[in-house]
Specification:
The structure is a homodimer. By secondary structure, chain A is α/β, with parallel strands linked by helices. Chain A folds into 3 domains: about 1-60, Quinone Oxidoreductase, Chain A, domain 1 (Alpha-Beta Complex), CATH 3.90.180.10; about 80-225, 3-Layer(aba) Sandwich (Rossmann fold); about 255-285, no CATH class. Chain A has helices at about 80-90, 105-120, 130-140, 155-160, 175-185, 215, 235-245, 260-270, and strands spanning about 20-25, 40-45, 60, 100, 120-125, 145, 165-170, 185-195, 220-225, 255, 275-280. Chains A, B: Homodimer.
């Protein structure tokens, strides 16, 4: 149980046990008729060189081994499906929609923004450093981006970025950003709630004051979890593999070598040291 | 513009002009080919004995004059359609759902709760006096009800009323009630946001702190306004007229006589003096 007295959707880590992470694995021994030696799969695995996979309901065989296998921890795996489900199934975009993505330089945010561009939307991202803002505008094709740490008044920032208002908010942070977005939403706006990371480590949660906008503007705000969308995985995998091959989606990775680099790579995440998806290469094909 | 710097969905009152209200009218003169002398209509009219109706897009002819005509200002009119649209179209109930309604003794709340009972749901209402709580349990068939002014801890109250959690919240008040409901929602719960009356006259809006529940529980929170649902009016009118004739829906009115009683009746609303829908009878059939 988390300190909010509510169960989370991921079991709490028990000290002494092997950490779990998203990984790509090759079958070296199998007791299951559907899996044979040499099959490639992705899913939640132990952070170890050899791992026992029993949770097959959250593993998928890899259908596009011609693409980098590492992509299956990111753009072709759970983070990719998260962006896809949250943007298409929850936010239900229309061509020409005005879209804002928070924590936009994270893998999910990057992809949500690029899927919005592919869908003919206007997309602005928020991120926490000038380097990330620059990456959003150059590498990931966002129409605009801003460093929220440098903005005095997020309401004014959003009014500047969206003079006609916002149709879709792909929400990763919560708190003050959500409050400012609500004031700038258009009629029938949608808030697709992927996470509220600004609130997770606060002793005292921030209050969101502008929820009255939900009535006057008929806003739909909806949370989602990728596991509920696994039935769409094959459709997503084909579509995303196509975008990658056509160069319509850009994706970057930061790779460290060897299982012994895992602790450093993990801790680096909390300091924002990585720019692309952080990977640890344990073995290579 | 309201003090929240956002346009409301009803134009601000201009001192010196005639007040508007929901009314039932009989046509005494008509310049429109679809309306003839003696036709009965309901919609937004001036608070006066004779009124000029030009906003025909928000007026409807009355199809069931065999029921009390006054019902068309309430259970068969805009408040009724509000409850119907917010409960069926927005909250999308399933048989057996656990439902909580705030401001439940108001006309919309009463009807939302009774529609929930007709749909096979378990319904609890909150209200602001013991008299109202009693009315909910006796007259309107709620399974349970509580006086929120007497509860120390709304979270504990809801845990007591809903040991298995809440599927649907028909939201009329916002603030602390919404925060407590979010903590008690079940997976895939729905918050149908009809209003947030607790916030409308505050100098400093209350913050809602438990929005992180929206992700973990995949909650959908959606605002609505009855005008968006006028296309369903005829379907609603037939269904509700049927429930009234079968005695499946109870409805109470407080009637004062004469246009001169209007100011007293209006001011009484702010003190909660009325129990049923407050009406002013200007002329009778």
């Amino acid at each position: 149980m988390s300190r909010h007295e509510e169960p989370s959707y991921v079991p709490d880590f028990v000290p002494g046990e092997v950490l779990t992470t998203l990984g790509v694995s090759k079958v070296v021994e199998s007791g299951h008729q559907d899996y044979k030696l040499g099959d490639l799969v992705w899913g939640m695995t132990g952070c170890e060189e050899y791992t026992l996979i029993t949770n097959l309901e959250s593993h998928f065989k890899i259908n596009h081994p011609e693409l980098p296998l590492s992509y299956y921890t990111g753009v072709l795996g759970m983070p990719g499906l998260t962006a896809y489900a949250g943007f298409f199934d929850v936010a239900k975009p229309k061509k020409g929609d005005y879209v804002v993505v928070s924590a936009a330089s994270g893998v999910v945010g990057q992809l949500a923004g690029q899927l919005a561009k592919i869908s003919g939307c206007y997309v602005v991202g928020s991120a926490g450093s000038d380097e990330k803002v620059n990456l959003l505008k150059t590498k990931f094709g966002f129409d605009d981006a801003f460093n929220y740490k440098k903005e005095q008044d997020l309401n004014a920032t959003l009014k500047r970025c969206f003079p006609e208002g916002i149709d879709i908010y792909f929400e990763n942070v919560g708190g003050a950003m959500l409050d400012a977005v609500l004031l700038n939403m258009r009629l029938h706006g949608r808030v697709s709630v992927c996470g509220m990371i600004s609130q997770y480590n606060l002793e005292q949660l921030e209050g969101v004051r502008n929820l009255f906008c939900i009535v006057a503007k008929r806003i739909r705000m909806e949370g989602f979890i990728v596991m509920d969308h696994y039935s769409n995985y094959r459709k997503f995998e084909e579509e995303m593999a196509g975008y990658l091959k056509e160069g319509k989606i850009n994706y970057v990775e930061d790779v460290t070598e060897g299982i012994e680099s895992f602790p450093t790579a993990l801790i680096g995440l909390f300091y924002g040291r990585n720019v692309g998806k952080q990977l640890v290469a344990v073995a290579r094909e």
